[in-house]
Each structure stands twice: as structure tokens, then as C-alpha cells.
């Protein structure tokens, strides 16, 4: 496993408000790291700094050894992004949406079309290639966004709540694809409010509260380390269902 993402002492301020405080973590190839935190914990802000959609207030991010602040265009090319908003173009078909995105990566036209078809096959949407975006279900849209994120053969895919709002079947389909990608060597950075998703996909979990990493470990050893039975209990306990979380936040601030 080689290191793909290195987040070093990362902080983000919006005016006087600190959204992310001194966060450190590494994601390697074939590894999925999950950021687990309540609404407003700072997960999306962290991800946005990685893909240069938000400026870094303090600290450093390296993608494949390259400093994101110094080389945003280069580092972005190594990333696939599944953001909370799918940003699909409703005036284009499914295939056209992929092609339009692929043009940004200077892939030769013929090769691009082939690649788009392969990706539609991978996410099980081949039969929808020429359909309007509006004809897709929520789960299909998320699968298409995943295909779009894979167009540039990314080393790291950033997944901001990739299955929110989907039915159990659609979530399983997406999990299967993500596990396949991981096996193929891709690194994954995930946020999710679903504990089962984190347990299924993540090799390492960071519990974030008010922009601070409270605890870090595997989905199995985090509860053991912190004296809880399940990941959900650990998360609830550390993020405010007991006094201890506030003490840790104060100590780390
Ligand atoms: N552009 C912005 N300007 C000011 N404050 C912001 C901005 N974006 C986010 N914030 C604040 O930063 C904090 C972290 O937000 P962020 O979106 O990172 O949370 P999150 O952990 O991703 O939450 P969710 O689970 O709801 O997606 C929140 O308090 C939010 O209100």
C-alpha cells in the first residue's frame, strides 16, 4: 500500500469560526478511511480543501506527494469526486453527461466514448446510456456520479455521503462497486451517517466533532479502545452523549 493522501495539521477558519482544527490523517492505496461526524462537524470542509474547492487556512495536504496548495490543477487530476450535490446536467443524456465531464481531462474523443461506455457497464447503467437524466432514479444518479468520478482513473475517490437517501438494494450495489475499486488499488475517503456503511467499507475511522478528531481506529477496535460495544455507541458517546467529548474538545482546542 502506498500513501496517496496526507493531511497534515489541517485547519480551516470561516471568519472567526474554526470549522476544522488541526486534523491529521493518511489514506493509502487499497484503503478506505471514513470521517464520521455529526452535521456541521467539518467533514465536507475537509474534503473541499482536498479537492481545492475551499482554501486551506493552516496546515498542508499532499495528494500523491504533491502539495495541493501549490499544485491544485495537478492534484485534482488524481482525484475523483462524489460530492453531496450530483451536479448532473439535465439537458444531456446519461452518456453525454459522462462525455462532457471527460472532455475536461483531454481524453481523445474515441477513447473517451469507449471509456464512458465501459464505466456505464461497470455501474450497471449501460441500458440507460441514451436516456435523459430525469429518467434515472436516485440510486442510478449516484451510480452515474460514481462512474463520472472514475473517468480520470483517480488514485483517490472522495465520497461525501455517497448513498444518502438510497434504498438498501442501491446502497449494496454501490458498496460492491466501491469494494471492487478498493481491491483494484484505489484509495477512498468516505463520509457517511450510516454506521453499517462505514463498517462495511472503512479500514480506518476518524470520529470528528466540532472540527476536531476525537478518536481514530478500525471499525472493530474503536469501540474496544473507548470502552463501548458498537461503533454507533462509540460515536454517540464521544460526540456529545456524555461529558467526556466536551472535555476532549476543550483539551485539544
Ligand atoms: N462557506 C462557509 N462559510 C461559513 N461557514 C461554513 C461554510 N461552509 C461550512 N461552514 C460551517 O462549517 C462547519 C462545518 O461544515 P461542514 O459542511 O464541513 O460540515 P459536515 O461535517 O460536512 O456536515 P454535514 O454532515 O451536515 O454535511 C459548519 O458549522 C458550517 O456551518
Automatic annotation (TrEMBL):
It holds the Pfam family ABC_tran. Residues 5-235 form the ABC transporter domain. GO terms for molecular function: ATP binding; ATP hydrolysis activity. Keywords: ATP-binding, Nucleotide-binding, Transport. It comes from the Bacteria. Belongs to the ABC transporter superfamily. This is ABC transporter ATP-binding protein. It comes from Pediococcus cellicola.
Amino acid at each position: 500500500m502506498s500513501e496517496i493522501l496526507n493531511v497534515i495539521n489541517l485547519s480551516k477558519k470561516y471568519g472567526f469560526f474554526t470549522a476544522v482544527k488541526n486534523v491529521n490523517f493518511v489514506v493509502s492505496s487499497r484503503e478506505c478511511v471514513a470521517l464520521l461526524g455529526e452535521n456541521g462537524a467539518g467533514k465536507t470542509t475537509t474534503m473541499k480543501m482536498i479537492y481545492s474547492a475551499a482554501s486551506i487556512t493552516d496546515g498542508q495536504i499532499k495528494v500523491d506527494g504533491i502539495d495541493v496548495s501549490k499544485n491544485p490543477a495537478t492534484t485534482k487530476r488524481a482525484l475523483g469526486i462524489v460530492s453531496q450535490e450530483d451536479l448532473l446536467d439535465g439537458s444531456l443524456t446519461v452518456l453525454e453527461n459522462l462525455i462532457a465531464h471527460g472532455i475536461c481531462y483531454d481524453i481523445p474523443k474515441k477513447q473517451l466514448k469507449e471509456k464512458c461506455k465501459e464505466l456505464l457497464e461497470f455501474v450497471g447503467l449501460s441500458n440507460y446510456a441514451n436516456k435523459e437524466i430525469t429518467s434515472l432514479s436516485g440510486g442510478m444518479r449516484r451510480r452515474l456520479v460514481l462512474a463520472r468520478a472514475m473517468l480520470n482513473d483517480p488514485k483517490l475517490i472522495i465520497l461525501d455521503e455517497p448513498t444518502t437517501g438510497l434504498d438498501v438494494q442501491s446502497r449494496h450495489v454501490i458498496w460492491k462497486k466501491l469494494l471492487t475499486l478498493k481491491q483494484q488499488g484505489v484509495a477512498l475517503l468516505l463520509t457517511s451517517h450510516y454506521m453499517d456503511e462505514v463498517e462495511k467499507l472503512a479500514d480506518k475511522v476518524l470520529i470528528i466533532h466540532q472540527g476536531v478528531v476525537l478518536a481514530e481506529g478500525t471499525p472493530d477496535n474503536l469501540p474496544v479502545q473507548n470502552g463501548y460495544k458498537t461503533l454507533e455507541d462509540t460515536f454517540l458517546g464521544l460526540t456529545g452523549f456524555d461529558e467526556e467529548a466536551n472535555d476532549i474538545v476543550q483539551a485539544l482546542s
